[in-house]
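Sample intake — Metalloregulator ArsR/SmtB family transcription factor
Collected from: Paenibacillus oenotherae
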Amino acid sequence: METPDTSQLEIRVHEQLRSCSPIFLALADPVRQDIIMMLTKHEKLNVAQIVERSPMSRSAISHHLKILRQANLISSNKVATEIFYSLEIESAVSQLKDFIGTTEQIIELKTPDEAE
């Protein structure tokens, strides 16, 4: 049996991979992973509260928060003079699920049926 043309799916998965790259890069760093874990335990934290829970400096934490924000993994909300950060991963999870779904479709199309 001939394998159906997967070129359109491959183009789509390539585009999805590119759009997911900031998420992968943000999640690849252990410090950012720690920040994500902190925010899973607390509804919101400001920079000082995150620094208290980390061995990193305030400027380093701010840098990591910026990367997480750019990847749309966290959101920030200013209250008076403080900025509070909270986990906002629904969009990123949706992007990753779409990427995985397309990848699975390609694998299914390229994998010969075992029954044949």
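Post-analysis note: The beta strands are 45-46, 74-79, 82-87.
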